[in-house]
Each structure stands twice: as structure tokens, then as C-alpha cells.
Design a protein that fits this description.
With 98 residues, the protein is mainly α. It has one domain. Helix content is 58%, strand content 10%. The protein contains 4 helices and 2 strands; from the N terminus they run αααββα. The chain has a two-stranded antiparallel sheet.
Length: 98
């Protein structure tokens, strides 16, 4: 499959793993260099669309995530997932390189 056909795959047919894999291919091709300016622009734009697609997928999944908690009665119940605030995340991950 050519790069152009990969980039035009229908969104509803695209899976997160496929989008992420294609995004990795694009990043690697941009890192290698040697592409004509028009191709760089095209791949960059495709990469931006894939980043948005992946981000939207992750956000949708995050909204559906539930965690199991134990009730005082010992029964298991579910409650909505509440992501940590940025400040809590930063304090816990200060040693991360990103």
C-alpha cells in the first residue's frame, strides 16, 4: 500500500493501532530526511491528522473507563474514572523526561 493510500484510509475503518503505527512511519521518514519539500508537507499534514485522531480515540476511551471499587458491604461496584489533575501527575512524574 502506498503512503498516499494509507493516508486516505477512511477514519471509520482506521484502528488506533494502525493510526499510531502509521504515525511512527511518518515520524521516522521525517527524521531520515531527504524528502522533497512537497512530500514533507504532505506527511506532516497527515501526521497532524493522525495525532488528532489518536488523541480523540484516547479521550473517548478515557471517558468510558471505569474502575472497580469495593463497597463497605464487600460488593464490587463501578464508578466513573476520574483522571488525576495535571499537578498531581506532575508531582508523581517529575523524574520523567517528557
Amino acid at each position: 500500500m502506498t503512503d498516499e493510500k494509507k493516508g486516505k484510509k477512511k477514519k471509520e475503518d482506521l484502528k488506533f493501532e494502525q493510526a499510531f503505527s502509521r504515525l511512527e512511519e511518518i515520524v521516522n521518514s521525517l527524521d531520515e530526511g531527504g524528502l522533497p519539500l512537497e512530500e514533507l508537507e504532505s506527511r506532516f499534514e497527515e501526521g497532524l491528522r493522525l495525532v488528532k485522531f489518536c488523541g480523540d480515540k484516547l479521550n473517548a476511551i478515557e471517558k468510558r473507563v471505569e474502575k472497580l471499587v469495593e463497597n463497605p458491604s464487600g460488593d464490587l461496584a463501578t464508578e466513573d474514572f476520574e483522571p488525576e489533575t495535571q499537578q498531581e501527575t506532575k508531582a508523581e512524574g517529575d523524574d520523567l523526561p517528557f
